[in-house]
Design a protein that fits this description.
Distance between the termini: 59 Å
Radius of gyration: 24 Å
Length: 66
């Protein structure tokens, strides 16, 4: 692959790898061994954001105490 900026000129290699099955085919290849994963539901963009980490803003490890 080449960078689409002509002034850059970078060239690199990209790779696509099958990691697991989501749905097995009707004509499986006996020489192919991939784990079977679960189908993931689409992300719920309407869900509320997760809560902040428990220590967010409550601990200052560089605070000077006397």
């Amino acid at each position: 692959m080449l960078c689409n900026n002509d002034e850059c000129g970078s060239a690199f290699v990209a790779q696509v790898v099958a990691v697991r099955f989501v749905l097995r085919g009707l004509k499986p290849n006996p020489n192919l061994h991939l784990p079977v994963g679960k189908w993931r539901e689409a992300a719920n963009d309407d869900a509320p954001p997760p809560p902040p980490p428990a220590n967010d803003g409550t601990i200052d490890m560089f605070a000077v105490t006397s």
